[in-house]
Amino acid sequence: MRVLQLIDSLETGGAERVAVNLANVLSAEIEKSFLCATRKEGLLKEGLSDNVNYLFLNKQKTIDFKVIKRLSTFVKTNNIDIIHAHSTSFFLATIVKISNKKTSIIWHDHYGNSEFLESRKNGILKFCSKYFSHVFSVNRNLENWAKRKLNARSVSYLPNFASVDKNLSETKLNGVSGKRIVCLANLRPQKDHFTLVEAFKSVNNLYPDWTLHCIGKDFQDEYSKKVKSKVKTLGLSRSVFFYDSKPDIYYVLSQCEIGVLSSKSEGLPIALLEYGLAGLAVIATDVGECKNVIENNVNGFLINSLDYKMLYNTLIKYIDNRKLRNEYSKHYKNYIQEHFSEKSQLEKIIKIYKDIIK
C-alpha cells in the first residue's frame, strides 16, 4: 500500500512529530511512504528518513488552486491509496479526495484543547467528515466527541507513540549536571509556563543551584514576551533558560533529571512519552490522557492545573529524594516502553489501513 502523511508544518509540535514518526516507521513496513508539509517546513524535516518521499506545497491561503492541483496530481501520479491527514490538513485532503475518488482519507485528531470541546467549532469539519474512512483520536474525550459530532464511517482511540533519535547531540544545556528540570512544550498559552515559573521561583529560593530549561517553539508573540518578563521580574534570568525548538530532543532530555508539564489542557503529550524514553522522573497536570500514562505516586506525580504550590511541593519531593527520583523514573521508563512503543501502535494503524483498502 501507499500512504501519504499530510501535515500543515514541520515545526516541532506534537502532531507534527507524530506525522514524521509515522512516515519514517511506515517506510520499512509498506510499499511506499510519503509525507507532505502544506504550509511550512521546520526542524523536523531534518529527521525525515531518506526512504520517505517528501513534498512541500508552500500553501499561502485557505483555497489555493495551484496547491490543490499540485497535490492532486502528486496523489494520482504516485497511486496513493490513503491520505492520512493530521489536524487541520483534513480540508485540503477532502478537496483532493473529491478529484481522486479511489484515494481514502484517514483523519488524525490531535486537538489539544480537549478539556474545552464544548467551544470547538466543527461546521466545516462535520461536512468533510463524510469523506473520512476513519478517524484516529489521540484521547478518549476526542474519540467520544467524534462519534457524536462527525459523519466518519468509524472512529478509534489511538494513543501517541514516541520515537527518539539518539544520534544527534548538539545542544548543551546551561546549569549544573544532575540538577536540571526540563519542560518540553512550545510557548503557547495552553502549556501554562506561568504556573511553572511561579513554582520554580519557590524551588530556586531553597535550591539556587537547580535550573529550569524550556525547550519548544518560541513564536515571539505576546505570550512569549509575558513569560520571559515574568522570569525577569522574579529574578530568575540566571536559572530559567529558553532554547526554542531543538532537533536533538533525546540528548537534551538526557542532560536532565526531572521532566514537567504544567499544561491547562492536553491530548496525550508526546513530551511525556519522550520523558519516559529518556529515563526522567515526571510531573504533569491531571488533564487529557496524562492519567493514563502516569500512575500517581507509583511512577510519577499528577498535579492540579494552575496550582503552583502543588507543583512546587512535588518538585521538592523529587529534589529532596534522589532514591525516589530513580525509582519512579525506572518504573515510568518501563511502562512507556511496554505500552506506548512504536511497534504496538504501528500494528493498529496498519490494520486500519488494510481494512480500508479492502
Task: Name its key features.
single chain, six-stranded parallel beta sheet, 13 strands, alpha/beta, Rossmann fold, 12 helices, about 40% helix, about 350 residues
How many strand elements? 13
Rounded mean pLDDT is 94
Supply the number of structural domains: 2
User: CATH H level of the largest domain: which superfamily?
Assistant: Glycogen Phosphorylase B
> What is the top-level CATH class of the largest domain?
Alpha Beta
Describe the structure.
- The chain has a seven-stranded parallel beta sheet, sandwiched between helices. Strands 10-9-8-11-12-13 form a six-stranded parallel beta sheet, sandwiched between helices.
- It has twelve helices and 13 strands.
- The protein has 358 residues and is an alpha/beta fold.
- 39% of the residues lie in helices and 18% in strands.
- It has two domains: 2-161 and 341-357, Glycogen Phosphorylase B (Rossmann fold); 180-339, Glycogen Phosphorylase B (Rossmann fold).
